[in-house]
Design goal:
17 helices, six-stranded antiparallel beta sheet, 27 strands, alpha+beta, single chain
Length: about 700
């Protein structure tokens, strides 16, 4: 280490070198001697001629050559010399261009010999310079042009790679990530990227460059403020800044905040789509000065490609926001609490790429509180993945809810919804499953329109599929002249959970639907006991699997015995000549009277109800509607109503010794505590009531 009082470095005794060789003179080569300790740069007369300088114009320092050496060439020449010194090389050679006094270019060649001391430290560079213009016009010129062509092809390849990456961008962040990727902007040599979007006369930054490069007050700026991005947005022209001095001069407010980044040049490009600016982008460099015409053309081409991708991404995000808003508006805002049940619902949008709007679909769920402690659970899927499917879904959900709330039977609810969709003037159809549950009895009536079957998880955690006879999807019934939706009846015991879902939860690419249902069954068995945790688990599995279909899920768990004291109401449609419907009605009655605590009177109630149904089917031409409900007040009574479309009133009469007909109402009169007939529009309802034991207090 040198002493503090050491004198300034002195020149070598043999400085400057004066090599006198005939070959140098013959080839019009000039010589130079560069002392690295003092920084002095000596040239002979021939070297002055090569650089087209006079001794009076040169101050004896390498920086003085900037009068003839353009910044880009000077930067490249410095890089060659520095690399040779760093590598321990003894010499170097390169071609570079100078700008002559008349403004014309001249190709120049230099070779230097690096002298080092005993420790290997470089002390001097002695070399030659010569006019290489004619030489490069021949073979060397062709080689250089080939090299330039290769460089241009590399830049063109970068444009193609970036354009290909941008083609998959679906959001503004995807565009930024593609540009920052190793195959993106870094291939052009830029050290950082800054990008802003135009919004209502302002520019909002969406990419800020390297960490720590944020300039206070520039997150959102007005277009007219003196910043480079605002300038290119206003002029619709790129701005190339070729040196730090130019940057500081043009943008004195911005420059002090980024001096620590050692920026040497920058390119700011307007992002123009459909003849209007949507944003601006800045590429910052710290290892170069200036831009060639080819490089400028490449950057402008990249800017155009980025603008198109940004516009697509912004339109996609707008469409997605609209679609998701529509989807949320069409789905129930809240799910009502239901006494006697735990309910969980979930929705997951599709995650597949593709056209705008693919993140929305026609899947829906709904929960409909009904009189008498009943509840309707709906799951459905309108064909398609777009805003039209969501709009159709919303209308279908509303009308199906209205039909159920009006008190129609499950089969009628489904049939009317199918007619509505057919008359909606749309080419879409829908699958649907509607389950109407009486939480007091556990009786569940299920109607299926082309949808997948429900699952039931038992209290012990086991899970099974419930086969349900089904009809055509909604919207197709009228077309095929079929509005037949059979009703299946099942019992949901306390602690059991019914699961309704759309096919997005079970369908897996390349596998059979049955495989997906078996996999779902295993997931339900292994999932948490509570419906909310189970719903989260199932949706998480769907998220991990991905897929191009959305998912709707509804879980309803019947609670324990406390639900038995709820006031119940059940209804069943029985078609004339349909023995299966009659059997389902009998099953419903049997389950209800026992669940509602009829005690010893259960058999009597079943007998009377069966008699009323049989009479309605035998003595009228239409179907019958059977309604059971519990009436509360001073005493508990179970009421059975059988409604038909005939206005003819029944008569009680004594049957002859050999007669059979006429005994029905006598039986009703003897067993029921009260009975009667009520007019119902163009038809009637025959009813009877039975007193039931009071529930103990606290039950």
């Amino acid at each position: 280490m040198a002493d503090r009082g050491a004198s300034a470095p002195s020149l070598p005794d043999d400085w400057p070198a004066h090599p006198e060789h005939p070959i140098l003179a013959l080839n019009r080569m000039g010589t130079f001697d560069w002392d690295l300790d003092t920084g002095l740069f000596h040239m002979d007369a021939q070297a002055y001629e090569v650089f087209d300088l006079t001794p009076e114009e040169f101050d004896g320092r390498p920086e003085g050559l900037a009068l003839r050496v353009p910044p880009l060439e000077s930067s490249r020449l410095d890089a060659v010399v520095s690399q040779a010194i760093k590598d321990g090389s003894e010499n170097y050679g390169t071609y570079f261009r100078i700008r002559r006094r008349d403004g014309g270019p001249r190709w120049t060649h230099t070779q230097g010999y690096i002298r080092r001391d005993a420790t290997g430290r470089p002390r001097r560079v002695v070399g030659i310079v010569r006019d290489a213009t004619k030489e490069l016009e021949d073979s060397e010129a062709r080689s250089l042009r080939d090299a330039q062509g290769q460089a241009l092809r590399r830049q063109t390849d970068v444009v193609q790679v970036i354009t290909a990456a941008l083609a998959h961008a679906r959001s503004v962040q995807d565009v930024i990530d593609a540009l920052k990727d190793a195959h993106g902007i870094p291939n052009l040599g830029a050290t950082s990227l800054v990008m802003g979007l135009v919004e209502a006369g302002r520019i909002r930054l969406v990419a800020e460059g390297p960490a720590g490069s944020f300039v206070p007050g520039t997150r959102i700026t007005r277009v007219e403020e003196p910043y480079p991005m605002g300038e290119v947005v206003q002029t619709l022209s790129p701005r190339f800044i070729e040196s730090p001095d130019e940057f500081a001069e043009r943008y004195p407010i911005l420059w002090p905040h980024i001096t620590g980044l050692h920026i040497t040049s920058a390119a700011y490009l307007p992002l123009i789509a459909q003849a209007r600016p949507i944003g601006a982008m800045g590429l910052l460099y710290n290892d170069r000065l200036g831009f060639s015409s080819e490089e400028r053309a490449v950057l402008v081409a990249i800017g155009s490609s980025i603008a198109q991708s940004l516009q697509r991404a912004m339109l996609y995000e707008q469409e997605k926001d609209l679609a998701q808003g529509l989807q949320q508006a069409m789905l129930p805002r809240t799910i009502p609490s239901v006494r006697g049940a735990d309910v969980a619902v979930r929705y997951r949008s599709a995650s597949a790429g593709g056209s705008l709007g693919r993140d929305i679909g026609g899947d829906w769920y709904d929960l409909i509180p009904l009189p008498g402690g009943r509840v309707g659970a709906v799951i459905g899927d309108v064909q398609g993945h777009d805003t039209h499917a969501a709009a159709v879904m919303g209308q279908l959900r509303i009308v199906l809810r209205a039909y159920a709330a009006e008190g129609h039977t499950p089969a009628t609810v489904m049939a009317r919804a199918s007619v509505f969709l057919d008359e909606l003037d749309t080419d879409r159809f829908a699958t649907c499953l509607y389950a109407e549950a009486d939480l007091a009895t556990g009786v569940v009536q299920v109607v299926r329109a082309g949808h997948i079957d429900p699952l039931v998880r038992a209290a012990d955690g086991s899970c099974r599929r419930i086969p349900v006879e089904g009809g055509l999807p909604l919207g197709l019934s009228a077309e095929f002249d079929s509005l037949d939706y059979p009703v299946s009846t099942m019992e949901l015991d306390p602690g059991e959970t019914i699961l309704l879902c759309t096919d997005g939860l079970v369908e897996q690419p390349g596998t059979d639907l049955g495989v997906g249902i078996r996999a779902l069954t295993e997931q339900v068995e292994q999932g948490p006991e509570d419906v909310w945790g189970l719903a989260d688990r199932l949706i998480a599995v769907a998220e991990e699997r991905g897929g191009d279909d959305d998912v709707a899920l509804l879980l309803l768990r019947r609670r324990g015995p406390d639900t038995a004291q709820a006031v119940g109401r059940l209804q069943q449609h029985v078609a004339s000549g349909d023995p299966e419907a009659l059997a389902l009605a009998r099953h419903m009655i049997r389950a209800a009277v026992r669940a509602w605590g009829a005690g010893d009177r259960a058999d009597e109630i079943e007998l009377v109800a069966d008699e009323l149904i049989t009479n309605a089917l035998m003595h009228t031409e239409g179907s019958a509607i059977v309604t059971l409900r519990v009436l509360t007040g001073s005493d508990r009574r179970l009421r059975v109503e059988v409604e038909d479309s005939s206005s003819a009133l029944p008569r009680r009469r004594d049957a002859g010794e050999d007669g059979v007909s006429g005994r029905g109402l006598l039986l009703v009169d003897q067993i029921a505590d009260a009975w009667g007939v009520e007019a119902r529009g163009g038809g009637k309802a025959v009813w009877c009531e039975f007193r039931m034991p009071q529930k103990p207090d606290g039950d």
